């Protein structure tokens, strides 16, 4: 299997396997185990799966087509007048895990809240169409998804028992954007929001991503780590210069015999795959994982990926890595959520992690052209650079980029997470504060405490819950500066 996954690694936890994981299958499993380890019980009997009929197009009343959106409901913690908490899912199949553990679950437990979890249109089981042709995808947008969510909440809120209930939305990553934008567009419906690791600024050439990966390794890696990475990537580049070099590289890196590595886009995919090992660690790891990876690559001359069948480029039939661009496009088309998210990046957000900056050791071989080509090859010639640019501009105009006009939204980021470079890191106002958590990666604040969490992360969770309670009028909770440290 191979597909372009780097634009996918935005998710908080992805249930699918869309990462370009370079030899990182095991580490990925660790991540899932991490989340599971915070689960106190696996009792899902209190969680109900529900469906709501939604208009296909909220903005064209003449379009009378509808589809069914999936959501989940958990009411066993709810008591009269308790708030409603909605966990918004983004680019992936919805999972019940966030109704069983994490910040939303804790809030509901502490404040007698009702819990909901919504699935984004065109993901998981919330599919308006069987086939994701370009034509069918035209109703996929953040704006439509926000309208779906508003309609769901209006319907729930109209039930008499929720008459006095406040509504809080929670999301991480792309869904963190959505949480903030719910408050922006529906301030009368939504009372407060947590926008975790939310890259609210759409950006065509997101070269800061790899810059930040580099910063993480520089700051937390071993002393000679940067030099080593640089050496490895320079060697790759050198190999590509000659026919014999390519032959050698194919052997060293287990590249499939018939993959034509003289093609520029195949070379770029190779570089993307190799860089993605570092991307993944920066986005989901911690300082220890970074250090360990530096140790892992220390004694290798250039090969640092092991053969791992979870790697997106790994061809399990032939036991080799296949970096054939055309093949990658075809495979992407067979995986629904990849098609959907690729569509959203090509039309709304871009977020493509190029090597346009030179402040990193990953050479400069991942050009924006690779991503433009991915968009046009997947969706048609109209989905070109110009269109991406226009989409990004429109997104930022609509939602306000780094200065959305919102209150009662807390913007939380981990400073290891490269996506924080597109998020809000300083308070917008007293009622729209920002929190940056040291030594913490993507969306971690949405999980529950677990051993090894930095103290600042544990404090941040408390602070976020404090803010939400304050904003929905449940003010008699300790201020964070009154936390007693037991250590
Ligand atoms: C978490 O653990 C439960 C129970 O062992 C298991 O059913 C579930 O599949 C696990 N989930 C993940 C994401 O590993
Ligand atoms: C790397 O090589 C050094 C010296 O030969 C050795 O002490 C160390 O254990 C090796 N590290 C790994 C991770 O193989
Ligand atoms: C990588 O980038 C360098 C510098 O732009 C260029 O000379 C080289 O041809 C590129 N190599 C590959 C494999 O794309
Ligand atoms: C921000 O929103 C408030 C009300 O929600 C509105 O009064 C104000 O004009 C808005 N400011 C801008 C700059 O749009
Ligand atoms: C998380 O850890 C902090 C500090 O140990 C503690 O005060 C808090 O109660 C914990 N939260 C949960 C939900 O266990």
Automatic annotation (TrEMBL):
Family: Belongs to the peptidase S28 family.
Keywords for this protein: Glycoprotein, Hydrolase, Membrane, Protease, Signal, Transmembrane, Transmembrane helix
Molecular function terms, GO-annotated: dipeptidyl-peptidase activity; serine-type exopeptidase activity
Pfam families: Peptidase_S28
Transmembrane segments: 6-24
Protein's recorded name: Serine protease K12H4.7
Keyword Electron transport appears in the UniProt entry: no
GO biological process: proteolysis
């Amino acid at each position: 299997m191979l597909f372009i996954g780097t634009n996918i690694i935005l998710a908080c936890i992805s249930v699918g396997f869309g990462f370009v994981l370079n030899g990182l299958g095991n580490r990925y499993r660790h991540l899932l185990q991490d989340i599971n380890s915070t689960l106190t019980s696996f009792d899902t009997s209190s969680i109900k799966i529900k469906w709501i009929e939604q208009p296909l197009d909220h903005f064209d009343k003449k379009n009378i087509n509808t589809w069914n959106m999936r959501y989940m409901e958990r009411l066993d913690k709810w008591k009269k007048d308790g708030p409603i908490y909605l966990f918004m899912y983004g680019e992936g199949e919805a999972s019940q895990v966030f109704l069983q553990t994490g910040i939303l679950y804790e809030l509901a437990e502490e404040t007698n809240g009702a819990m909901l979890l919504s699935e984004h249109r065109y993901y998981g089981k919330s599919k308006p169409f069987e086939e994701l042709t370009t034509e069918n995808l035209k109703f996929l947008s953040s704006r439509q998804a926000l309208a779906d969510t508003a309609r769901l909440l209006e319907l729930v809120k109209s039930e008499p028992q929720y008459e006095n209930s406040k509504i809080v939305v929670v999301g991480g990553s792309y869904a963190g954007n959505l949480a903030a934008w719910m408050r922006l567009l529906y301030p009368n419906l939504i009372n407060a929001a947590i926008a975790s690791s939310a890259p609210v600024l759409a950006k065509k050439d997101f070269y800061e991503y790899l810059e930040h990966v580099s910063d993480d390794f520089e700051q937390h890696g071993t002393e000679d780590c940067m030099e080593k990475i640089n050496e490895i990537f320079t060697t790759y580049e050198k190999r590509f210069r000659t026919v014999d070099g390519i032959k050698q590289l194919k052997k060293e890196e287990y590249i499939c015999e018939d993959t034509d590595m003289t093609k520029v886009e195949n070379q770029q995919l190779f570089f993307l795959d190799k860089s993605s090992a570092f991307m993944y660690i920066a986005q989901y790891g911690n300082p220890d994982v970074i250090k360990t990876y530096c140790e892992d690559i220390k004694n290798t001359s250039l090969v640092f990926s092991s053969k791992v069948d979870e790697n997106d480029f790994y061809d399990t039939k032939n036991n080799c890595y296949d970096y054939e661009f055309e093949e990658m496009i075809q495979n992407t088309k067979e995986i629904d959520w990849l098609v959907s998210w690729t569509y959203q990046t090509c039309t709304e957000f871009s977020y493509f992690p190029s090597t346009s900056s030179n402040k990193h050791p990953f050479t400069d071989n991942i050009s924006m052209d690779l991503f433009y080509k991915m968009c046009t090859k997947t969706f048609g010639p109209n989905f070109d650079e110009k269109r991406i640019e226009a989409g990004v501009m429109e997104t930022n105009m609509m939602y306000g980029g780094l200065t959305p006009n919102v209150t009662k939204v807390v913007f939380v980021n981990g400073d290891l997470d490269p996506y924080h470079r597109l998020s809000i890191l300083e308070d917008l106002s007293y009622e729209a504060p920002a929190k940056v958590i040291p030594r913490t990666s993507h969306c971690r604040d949405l999980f529950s405490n677990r051993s090894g969490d930095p103290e600042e992360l544990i404090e941040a969770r408390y602070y976020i819950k404090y803010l939400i309670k304050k904003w929905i009028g449940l003010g008699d909770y300790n201020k964070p500066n009154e936390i007693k440290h037991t250590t």
